[in-house]
Amino acid sequence: MVILNQKRKSKDEITVSALVKITDANMDIVYKDMVTKMQQEVTVQQIMSQIANVKKDMIILEKSEFSALRAENEKINVELHRLKQQIMDEVIKIRTDTKLDFNLEKSRVKELYSLNERKLLEMRTEMVALHAQQDRAVTQTDRKIDTEVAGLKTMLESHKLDNIKYLAGSVFTCLTVALGFYRLWI
Q: Which residues cross the membrane (predicted)?
């Protein structure tokens, strides 16, 4: 685009300098030929012819430059369209890759979550089983202790009664012996 602008400027400068030269040349001619009206008309006709030629040249230059600009513009539009399509393809590719990565990560997280849920459920089941086993053991131990305590109480009562019997028997025996000695001495 910059090159086209430079070309256009250089062409415009060439055209302007040509116009300036033609105008200078015409002015010289006009000053030299100020003699008769006829010559003046001829000179005017020549100038008009030269101006018409310059106009034609300008139109031709403008048209050819316009055609060149149009062709360059079309080239740029085609390139721009191609680049735009490439960018769209890259964006679609990146978007697709990102979605795929996101879905893979999402499924991996779901798998980890379900695995952790299963482990947690297994641990809960294990804890409940251990707790139930512990409760059974405690209950059995409580029963054994209660049974042992009851047996010990029974044995203690039995020994107590036996001791009371032996004590009562010993007291009565001692009393009997003491009464026997007392009768013997009296």
A: 166-185
CA atoms within 13 A on the CB side of 46: 14
| Cα 126 from chain centre | 39
Is 117 a member of any domain? yes
- The total number of structural domains in the chain stands at 1
Task: Confirm whether 180 is domain-assigned.
Answer: no
- For 133-151, give one letter per residue: b (16+ CB within 10 A) or e: eeeeeeeeeeeeeeeeeee
Residue among 17, 14, 20, 40 at smallest CA distance from 29: 40
pLDDT tens per residue across span 72-129:
889 989 999 999 999 999 999 999 999 999 999 999 999 999 999 999 999 999 999 9
Q: What is the pTM of this model?
A: 0.36
Per-residue pLDDT band at 61 (split at 50, 70, 90): confident
More confident residue, 38 or 149: 149
The verdict on residue 73 lying in a domain is: yes
Supply 112's token pair.
């980890």
Q: Residue 19: CB partners within 8 Å, gap ≥ 6?
A: 54
Establish if 74 belongs to a structural domain: yes
SS3 assignment, position 2 = helix
Count of beta carbons in the 10 Å neighbourhood of residue 61: 15
- List the alpha helices (DSSP H) in the chain: 2-32, 37-185
